[in-house]
Please model this.
Amino acid sequence: MFKRIWTVMQKEFIQTLRDQRTLRIQIMLPVIQLILFGYAITTQVNHIPTIVADQSLDAVSRAFVDALTTSGYFDVIAAATSQAEVVSAIDAGRAQVGVVIPPGFAAHVGLDDAQVLILVDGSDLFTSQSAYNAATAIAQAHASQIVVQRLQRSGQVRPDQSWLPLDTRVRILYNPDLKDLWFLIPGMIAMLLQMQTVTLTAAAVVREREVGTIEQLLVTPIRPAELLIGKIAPNMVIALVNMLTILGMGVFWFRVPFQGNFWLFFALALLYVFSGLGLGLLLSTVSQNQRQVQQLNGMIMVLGLLLSGFIFPRSAMPPVIRLVGNIFPLTYFIPIARGIVTKGIGLAYLRNEVAALAAYVVVIMLLATWTFRQRLD
Model:
């Protein structure tokens, strides 16, 4: 059995090394993707273009606008005279946030009934969420500051005395500065590994069928499972090289701290690579030609990206959607990658994900072998 598998592995290695251009693309593509994703994907939006219609033009209204700009979230790019002009600027795409301060703002602040209208462009999800949260926090902090100053002037509160009845302190674990890349890079490693492993093997069997060499393999004594194992060997080596490359770039280029055990991560990544290779083989065995396998691979990539928890939290998804997400190995490896890289946790906290991933490998390889045998029959 091992001799037959080794023979197929030699054939696949020779075929892989012969096409140097494709090999270079397979190794460099994840690096390029990581660089692009690492710099392009962000959930924190700063310096949002803002237009202000200050109809009061007093010291209190200017102080409120200054509080917005000094936060770093809002950049005032223009002034307007009315709400309609603000909406027009947002519609034209010149601004994403508009601030409308009504006349007599200072007087209304003294009467505790001042209002400020902040208009946010909701067509951009991340920008609108950042703008809404920042504007709400800044407005509350500014209002609290006004109340404190008023109480201090009346002598009810000393300058060094806290007037708040509750002191809430938030402590963020593992990512105290809320850096995007500390959250995104482990997920990107998982995503790029799945893209690479599935793509590498998706055309393995169907390519043999298209060029007519599958018949030559059928007359040999090799079994379907041995043929499939031999075919994934070169792709597994390439996938592991890519895993080490993008992990090294994440740690040393993007400065994401690696908190956990490297060898545990490597072992589980190897298991994850097998799951992706098995999924690619299954796609290859059920496809008639390379166009079909490319379409199936594209669908798997999109659904896995959306349903695995890489972007959107799975806890907020309906139960049926979460069940659909369970068919992708990315769903199980993202908690593993984030747990080991970001949190530094061990196998005791990841046993459910590891068990699910191990079961996935067994099931997907058996299913690929059975499907391949059925196609041969």
About this structure: The two ends are 22 Å apart (CA to CA). The longest strand covers residues 48-54.
